[in-house]
Write a structure and sequence with these properties.
This protein is of the alpha+beta class and 138 residues long. The chain is 23% helix and 34% strand. The protein is built from 3 helices and 7 strands, in the order βααββββββα. A 5-stranded antiparallel sheet has the order 1-4-5-6-3, with helices on one face. It is elongated and about 45 Å long.
Length: 138
């Protein structure tokens, strides 16, 4: 499978900084969620598509490593990369950089598992396997 990734820029808003005038650590979780939504729209695996197939994709695992700070009005370059796995799960790696300086601010990874609307774990949803096949030469 060709590497599937997406990049976008976000400007740090006042509501995302803390008393120390730097991006509050929890705001990075929102940037990662924004990245997953943007990736899903670009590659046809957005949350609406998941819902329409009768599934949810809750975050099962999330790791973040903070490397540098960002502040108010900084432009951040957010990059998300899909990591293919044989099982039916969404695995992503992320980098967030200061768009002006290139400084690496954060690295992260996440895993989402598929559950039916009834809450049953499904390790190999058929529709997801089709999605992977359709993007193997994207």
């Amino acid at each position: 499978m060709k590497t599937l990734s997406h990049e976008f820029t976000v400007r740090v808003r006042f509501s995302e900084i803390d008393a120390l005038k730097m991006v509050w650590h929890g705001s990075y979780v929102t940037y990662l969620e924004d990245a997953r939504e943007a990736f899903g729209i670009k590659y046809g695996i957005g949350y609406q598509t998941i819902f329409d197939n009768g599934y949810f994709a809750p975050v099962y695992d999330l790791h973040m490593q903070y490397r540098h700070t960002a502040g108010l009005n900084d432009d951040l370059l957010v990059r998300i990369t899909y990591i293919p796995k044989p099982a039916g799960k969404l695995c992503f790696e992320y980098e967030i950089r200061n768009a002006a300086t290139g400084d690496l601010l954060l690295t992260a990874s996440s895993i989402q598992l598929f559950t039916t609307v009834d809450g049953e774990f499904d390790p190999q949803p058929e529709w997801f396997e089709e999605w992977k096949k359709s993007h193997s030469n994207a």
